[in-house]
């Protein structure tokens, strides 16, 4: 069907093409909306081809500004540029300040929408609206940006969060690079979504649904200005009586920090598999004191993890220990998912940590002391063997899925400090390096026990299978939140790519892969081989002799 196009030019620079069909009296309007980011104007140049819907646009920057790119339904840097209008189009001309770095703002409603939609129901947004309806798996909004110089960039997001704190995925060039935790708001505001690496040229930035339920207003991109090399964690341990072996291990970790990453695995089965199939072993072996919990022993649980830890130390390895602490009492012990062996989960116990910590005269508190003493006895065995321990108790508390975090930050912090005091001052355990497993949300610092009780910050990171991102945004969020503390990836599913770790300067101290099943599900064999044979990765055979390591 042939059509005739009639173009109307409005002062708002909305161009309307009117299509009239030869065999119909119907009229169809096609809108070309032109917006500006920064200071400048957009004009039409030359004659307008009304029959074919062709117009030439020219971006004219204001004084002190320069044209950077077109975005929206037109991409590129050509200026002037010829546009063929075949359907409704939204175009924005991006202007930046001349001779200086500038924060560039990209309106979300002009981006690429997958399952989402533009709305203007709420007030306070910028531009012509905002993007909402991140309701289903795969829903996302992305914008295209052109970057002149590769490097680290701050991604700032304008949003409205009327439905409470939510977590969603930060998408960079189609790959999840981290999570964005957005606190509840009463209107539109902005938040640092993350620090990410952007290549020179075209990149895409967006938000994909995890929890959803937020409104996305815009994205800002700003060159990250701080030096990626200025990491100065302290070697001084919080326990002034720490043993020389423990001081030597901490000194080694700090000396290695930013130079290489130390390979770790979560259990002996993983270490054995790696040795048999890759020909390399992790330097850090992470084990669990779970089955030493008295309420598990009462049901017949047994373990030899302490013996395995001592063997690993005597083999020249680094020992890390966590404790999936079965609640001291009040196990529900019911099918299907609340049986006694799930007693460290909030759902599987009615034990109230807040009540216990507020009532030191209670049976509940005394049972906490009983459990702490039982675990101290096992840690003492390691101390007697000369083995320092990366001690990682009460992990992932902020999630609330473990009973020790179920009642919020205050009882958790009391419990951590009680454990520190009981172990350090009562049991004289001087072989522990205290590792706090942290998150990087806006409220995460409220959970932190304090610098005087924590040596190292850890993060447990599980990305989609075969996503080998170094989680740079989370790393630097934690570095900024806890200055002076070394930061490690204390659990992982996918192992970060050593090339990307170096490229993006994500200087995690070590990683620790969780179980053989998860290792093989989330990583290809080729990737595992690549990691364990990379010069940037320290394996067991490359560990220095800690016995005489200076501190």
UniProtKB/TrEMBL annotation:
<feature type="active site" description="Nucleophile">
    <location>
        <position position="491"/>
    </location>
</feature>
<feature type="active site" description="Proton donor">
    <location>
        <position position="396"/>
    </location>
</feature>
<dbReference type="InterPro" id="IPR022790">
    <property type="entry name" value="GH26_dom"/>
</dbReference>
<dbReference type="GO" id="GO:0006080">
    <property type="term" value="P:substituted mannan metabolic process"/>
</dbReference>
<dbReference type="InterPro" id="IPR017853">
    <property type="entry name" value="GH"/>
</dbReference>
<dbReference type="InterPro" id="IPR005084">
    <property type="entry name" value="CBM6"/>
</dbReference>
<dbReference type="InterPro" id="IPR008979">
    <property type="entry name" value="Galactose-bd-like_sf"/>
</dbReference>
<dbReference type="InterPro" id="IPR001763">
    <property type="entry name" value="Rhodanese-like_dom"/>
</dbReference>
<feature type="domain" description="Rhodanese">
    <location>
        <begin position="398"/>
        <end position="413"/>
    </location>
</feature>
<dbReference type="GO" id="GO:0016985">
    <property type="term" value="F:mannan endo-1,4-beta-mannosidase activity"/>
</dbReference>
<feature type="domain" description="GH26">
    <location>
        <begin position="232"/>
        <end position="541"/>
    </location>
</feature>
<dbReference type="GO" id="GO:0030246">
    <property type="term" value="F:carbohydrate binding"/>
</dbReference>
<keyword id="KW-0732">Signal</keyword>
<dbReference type="InterPro" id="IPR000805">
    <property type="entry name" value="Glyco_hydro_26"/>
</dbReference>
<dbReference type="Pfam" id="PF02156">
    <property type="entry name" value="Glyco_hydro_26"/>
</dbReference>
<keyword id="KW-0378">Hydrolase</keyword>
<feature type="signal peptide">
    <location>
        <begin position="1"/>
        <end position="22"/>
    </location>
</feature>
<dbReference type="Pfam" id="PF18998">
    <property type="entry name" value="Flg_new_2"/>
</dbReference>
<protein>
    <submittedName>
        <fullName>Mannan endo-1,4-beta-mannosidase</fullName>
    </submittedName>
</protein>
<feature type="domain" description="CBM6">
    <location>
        <begin position="104"/>
        <end position="222"/>
    </location>
</feature>
<comment type="similarity">
    <text>Belongs to the glycosyl hydrolase 26 family.</text>
</comment>
<dbReference type="InterPro" id="IPR044060">
    <property type="entry name" value="Bacterial_rp_domain"/>
</dbReference>
<keyword id="KW-0326">Glycosidase</keyword>
<dbReference type="Pfam" id="PF16990">
    <property type="entry name" value="CBM_35"/>
</dbReference>
């Amino acid at each position: 069907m042939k059509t005739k196009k009639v173009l109307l030019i409005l002062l708002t620079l909305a161009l309307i093409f009117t299509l009239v069909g030869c065999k119909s009296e119907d009229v169809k309007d096609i809108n070309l909306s032109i917006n500006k980011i920064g200071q400048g104007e957009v004009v039409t140049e030359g004659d307008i081809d009304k029959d074919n819907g062709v117009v030439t646009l020219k971006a004219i920057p204001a004084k002190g500004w320069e044209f950077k790119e077109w975005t929206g339904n037109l991409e590129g840097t050509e200026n002037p540029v010829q546009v063929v209008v075949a359907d409704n189009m939204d175009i924005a001309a991006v202007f930046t300040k001349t001779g200086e770095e500038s924060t560039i703002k990209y309106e979300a409603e002009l981006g690429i929408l997958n399952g989402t939609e533009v709305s203007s129901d709420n007030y306070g947004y910028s531009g012509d609206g905002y993007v909402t309806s991140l309701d289903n798996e795969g829903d996302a909004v992305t914008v295209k940006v052109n970057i002149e110089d590769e490097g680290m960039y701050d991604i700032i997001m304008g949003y409205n969060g009327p439905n409470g704190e939510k977590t969603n995925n930060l998408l960079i060039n189609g790959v999840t690079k981290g999570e964005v935790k957005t606190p509840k708001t009463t209107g539109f505001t902005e938040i640092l979504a993350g620090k990410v690496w952007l290549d020179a040229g075209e990149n895409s930035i967006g938000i994909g649904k995890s929890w959803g339920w937020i409104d996305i207003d815009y994205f800002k991109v700003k060159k990250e200005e701080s030096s990626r090399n200025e990491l100065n964690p302290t070697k001084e341990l919080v326990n002034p009586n720490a043993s020389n072996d423990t001081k030597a291990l901490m000194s080694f970790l700090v000396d290695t920090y930013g130079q290489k990453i130390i390979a770790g695995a979560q259990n002996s089965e993983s270490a054995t598999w790696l040795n048999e199939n890759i020909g390399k072993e992790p330097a850090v072996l992470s084990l669990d004191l779970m089955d030493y919990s008295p309420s598990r022993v009462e049901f017949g649980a047994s373990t030899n993890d302490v013996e395995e830890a001592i063997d690993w130390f005597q083999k020249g390895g680094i020992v890390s220990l966590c404790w999936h602490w079965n609640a001291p009492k009040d196990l529900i012990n019911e099918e299907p998912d609340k049986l006694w062996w799930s007693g460290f989960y909030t759902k599987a116990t009615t034990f109230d940590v807040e009540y216990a910590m507020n009532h030191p005269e209670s049976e509940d508190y005394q049972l906490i002391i009983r459990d702490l003493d039982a675990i101290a006895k096992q840690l003492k065995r390691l101390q007697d063997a000369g083995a320092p321990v990366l001690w990682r108790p009460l992990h992932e508390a902020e999630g609330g899925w473990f009973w020790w975090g179920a009642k919020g930050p205050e009882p958790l912090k009391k419990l951590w400090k009680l454990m520190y005091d009981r172990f350090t001052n009562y049991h004289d355990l001087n072989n522990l390096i205290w590792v706090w497993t942290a998150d990087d949300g806006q409220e995460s610092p409220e959970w932190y026990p304090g610098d005087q009780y924590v040596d190292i910050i850890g993060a447990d990171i599980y990305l989609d299978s075969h996503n080998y991102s170094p989680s740079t945004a989370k790393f630097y969020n934690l570095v900024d939140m806890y200055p002076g503390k070394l930061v490690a990836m204390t659990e992982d599913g996918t192992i970060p790519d050593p090339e990307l770790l170096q490229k993006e300067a994500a200087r995690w101290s070590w990683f620790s892969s969780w179980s053989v099943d998860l290792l093989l599900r989330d990583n290809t064999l080729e990737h595992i081989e690549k990691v364990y044979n990379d010069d940037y990765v320290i394996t067991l055979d490359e560990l220095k002799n800690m016995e005489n390591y200076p501190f």
